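REVIEWER CHECKLIST
Item 1: Sequence provided? yes
Item 2: Single chain? yes
Item 3: Sequence as submitted:
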Amino acid sequence: MPARQGGTVNEAADDIAISLIRGGSFYWVQEKFRLIRPGAWDLQRRLPFAVAITWLPLLVLAFTYGGLEHLRAVLVDYRVYARVFVGHAMFLGLVTVALWKWAIWVYVLHQISRLNLQLDATNGDRTGGLGFLGDVPRAFSPLVLAISAVIGGTWRAQVLAGQQTLDFLKWPAAFLVVLVLLIFLLPLGLFTPMLVREKREGNLKYGSLRHLHSLQFRRKWLGNRSEHVGELLGNPDVSSLADLSAAFENVDDMIAYPFRRSAVLALLAALALPMLPVVITQIPFKDLIRNLFSAMH
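Item 4: Structure as written out by the authors:
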């Protein structure tokens, strides 16, 4: 690629604006409403707009159902401002951004799954070379931690108030675990059809290759061993047979789902940690640790 006049290729590349945030339908809507101008973030415009969307409906509802008395109570209650302006709005904003990134990730996976990928059934990751995709769900652990913390805080308050019991919350907690794992791991199943096809073809091709190789090895070293006995020591045929067998074991052990156990454990840990305060409302922490160690042994 030729350099620009009076500059270099690197300087030309530096002039190209690359952003993972600018662009997209949500960004386009903000531009249309003049909340964002080219080359600026315009937080002084967007923040008041976001606060108004969150706060004004609350004032309208308070006045509608309680009149001026309830409206005055809302206006002087600092807890409302803390939750609406900082806690609730910030939490929903971050969750919305994270879910938007998740939607983009799913879209990218779908587009990649439609490509003619060069998979290899003998790859050591046991997923045809797609094992690295299994690490991506771990990036959503902070989001899972935040959501679990909010849900755990609500459940703890309900348990302390006598509105719920731990025995009743077992099923909602189990449903939450299943839902989170499905949301962040199920998209990887887009690659399952091609991995199944690669494993089936690999078993056929490498199986026949191993069979032919074994026949040649047997014919040479067992059928005519007297002719090749002097070549036995240090001959690469034995290692070649072992290498082919190891490659076929990779094909045989190949799985049709590119997940990583570490990613699953990270998501489960992010779910479980905020739930500990809920559990210790009825089970002392010492007893909980003792039971965990007992279960491990």
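Item 5: Key structural point noted by reviewer: Residues 107 and 187 are 9 Å apart (CA to CA).
Item 6: Recommendation: ____
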